[in-house]
Amino acid sequence: MMRSGAMQFALWKYPIHFLACGFGVGFVPILPGTLGSLIGVCCFWFMAPLGRVVYAGIVVALAFVGIFICGLTASDRGLIDPSFIVWDEIVGFLVAMYLMRRDWRWILAGFLVYRAFDMWKPYPLHLFEQGPSLGLSIMADDIGAGIYTAALLHLLFWTGRWLRRA
């Protein structure tokens, strides 16, 4: 097993680990998952104008890539779901923001709600961590938190529109 310093050095040697660790932010000692979600915010900002089909296609591709790279990185490290792997937070946030407006208020709301669901893991999200493969179990709970967040944000968005019309 590699020590943390050896793993950080290996990031530059193995691009798969570099991606899984959110371009290195996973090794920041304080709140790596939150920082990974902030990378998701940046990705959303640039992806939102692409249109819903292209956006969804990219997110699905990133999720499948994540199953591979997160599983391989965790396996190489000998860990189940290490906190330095933040690719799952990036993809989870992108799921959370599907079809949302590129407006700082919705982005902030999405960020806060997504982080709450990701840390809280309400039923059945905590069960997703026991998936059939290491990579899938790492990705599934964050994608689930993203789905919960998207549902809540869309409910708030459409309820707000309905209330304004009344």
Report what the structure shows.
With 166 residues, the chain is mostly helical. Helices cover 73% and strands 0% of the residues. The protein contains eight helices and no strands. It has helices spanning 4-13, 15-20, 32-47, 52-77, 87-96, 104-120, 125-128, 134-165. The termini are far apart. The mean pLDDT is 90.
Task: Using brief descriptors, characterize the structure shown.
8 helices, mainly alpha, globular, 166 residues
Helix count, per DSSP? Answer: 8
Shape: globular
Unreliable parts: none
Category by helix and strand content: mainly alpha
Name the beta content range: under 5%
Helix content: over 70%
Average pLDDT, all residues = 90
Radius of gyration: 16 Å
Give the tally of structural domains.
Answer: 1
How does the major sheet shape up?
none
Summary, kept brief:
The protein is an all-alpha fold.
Describe the SSE topology:
Blueprint: H1 4-13, H2 15-20, H3 32-47, H4 52-77, H5 87-96, H6 104-120, H7 125-128, H8 134-165
